[in-house]
Amino acid sequence: MQKRSLKQRSLVGLLASTVLGACGGQTTLDAAGGLAGASASGGQSAIGSGGAGTGGGVGAGTSADGSGTGGRIADSLVQPLGTYECEPGIPATPARRLLNWQYDNTVRDLLGVTGLTEYGGEQPSHLLLPDYEGPLNTYSSEAYRLVARAIAEQVMADAALTPHFLACDPEQDSCLEDTIVLFGRKAFRRPLSEGEAQELAQLIPADLAGQGAQAATEILAAILNSPHFIEREIVVRSPDAFELTGHELAARLSYFIWGSTPDDILSAAADADELVSSEQVEAQIQRLLAAPQASDGIEHAFRHYLLLDSDTSYWFSRDHDRAKYPLFTAGLMAASREELLRFTDSVTVSGGTFSDLFLSAEGFVNADLAAVYGLNPGDFGPELEPVALDPEARPGLLTRVAFLASFSNSASTAPMIRGGYLLTRGFGLELPPPPAEPIGSAPPDGEYQTNRQYTEALTSPRNCQECHALYVNPFGFALENYDAIGSWQTVDPLGGPIDPLANVFVGDDIVPVSTPREVMELLAASKYARYQFAEELVSFAFERPPSPEDDCLVDELALLLEDDELPLLALWTKVASSALFRLGAPAAAE
């Protein structure tokens, strides 16, 4: 029996090895949801007006079964999936440096600090280097030292913050020694060793008279600058896989679900060795998920899944021609980001399902967003308000302004960019990189009545057709009822009627669609889309790229998602209670 994961059973590998080799347009999204690079067949610039062009469907001359000038899907692409098994394993478990958003949450929950007064109220992480893999360098080390110092001085200068650190008079006998033990336990997420406590105690002067507060500041700065605070440690105790300690498991749980340090209840459970049985761990998981802080973890799980924070992503990077799109106000994209995150949080915490992510018409609208959604801006203020949107025009998160306005050009829609994202990030189907020597970028001479016609002409060469016409463009064409900022349109700015009819590739079939809702229904029902979500949730939980060793757990989650009634939040429980979540492993020998 072959041992392969569910994703490997998909058509991803087959796609990359068959008809896609020569495609050179703006179709291939990189790992961050942006284009791998400007290439030949994808100018997607503002286009001229004019007369007739080519027609609808998958592409010029392409029929629903994939035949026509665009080529035919190879027979190997529609073969039965067969029976396979995943290959279990435990990836290496290094110490994890706090991500910047986790650093901010941790400082907030430990000390009540949300902004640094010395730096104009900036969040502490704004002074740190952007998140990166690898050891600390001179610049990042200095940044952590400066931030630790600023936090310590602010805490000791603010009577409202000081009790988070000090519960006694720093000039009283044993106050600072006790504080080292008590606060050090919270900051290091485990009890301090005797040597660690003694090292910090060396900062206490022999004569405390008039120096207690300054000594306390030095101690707090030293704790916050320690690698034991900056990193979440996992001590390798075996050449093979090993069980995490209660303190290591508590930290992994809290940073996955809350994105912050364990609270007093979870810490007490770890200290009392009460994170041993499945029942004990399950009780803590449910308590953490029920708390308001879970929204932080849920938000960042979706940011990871959607690639919202990638430097090369299209998300929220677009400006738009305000002469053509007067509804594109200064606050529109900020409001759309907030709406997107409010939507995903609401679906998840309210017991919504995977399908609800793509089919729910729940919206959050303010005056900036209202007109784009066809509502009266006068009925709304600056704050987002929950509303029921049109379920046919606005099902799910990919029919909202955040996605549609981000994945467009400044003066026109961008079917290839929208289609590429749906194919690669929505369905999780990979495309090969563009060729080393792409074809020329100029479309055939002619006048076009729609942006769809222009796009079809741009990608009409045979070696582009095989990629664009069959796989990428159709998803974008099916969303052409949304203009460049996400408003509903039935007439293209070039004067022709919008044609949303398309034949879309969904992983093992080509399916005709005629409305955006039909596309979202395909996403909601797709085993590939569900696997993609499961894989990215596991990747988020372990803070590493998807790994073959995770495949068994990902397969379990994907199979759970076959239950259309399953609350999405149940996946968080499944990940956190899994055997994989409770294990560590050393790095492989080089």
Features of this protein?
single chain, 590 residues, mainly alpha, two-stranded antiparallel ribbon, 8 strands, 4% strand, globular
Helix-strand blueprint:
Elements lengths: L5 H4 L2 H6 L78 E2 L2 H12 L26 H20 L4 H4 L9 H14 L5 H8 L10 H13 L2 H4 E2 L9 E2 L2 H12 L6 H8 L6 H13 L3 H13 L25 H18 L4 H6 L2 E4 L1 H4 L14 E4 L12 H6 L8 H12 L24 H8 L3 H17 L23 E4 L4 E4 L2 H10 L1 H16 L8 H10 L9 H7 L6 E2 L6
Antiparallel strand pairs: 1-2, 3-8, 4-5, 6-7
Helix pairs in contact: 4-8, 6-8, 10-11, 13-14, 13-22, 18-20, 22-23, 22-24
Can you tell me about this structure?
Mean pLDDT is 86; it is low at 8-33 and 35-84. The protein contains 24 helices and eight strands. Strand 6 and strand 7 (510-513) form a beta hairpin. With 590 residues, the protein is mainly α. The protein has a two-stranded antiparallel sheet. Strands 3-8 form a two-stranded antiparallel sheet. A two-stranded antiparallel sheet has the order 4-5. The protein has a domain at 97-231. It has helices at residues 6-9, 12-17, 100-111, 138-157, 162-165, 175-188, 194-201, 212-224, 227-230, 246-257, 264-271, 278-290, 294-306, 332-349, 354-359, 367-370, 401-406, 415-426, 451-458, 462-478, 516-525, 527-542, 551-560, 570-576; strands spanning 96-97, 231-232, 242-243, 362-365, 385-388, 502-505, 510-513, 583-584. The longest helix is centred in the first third of the chain and has 20 residues, at 138-157. Helix 13 packs across helix 14 and helix 22 (527-542) packs across helix 24 (570-576).
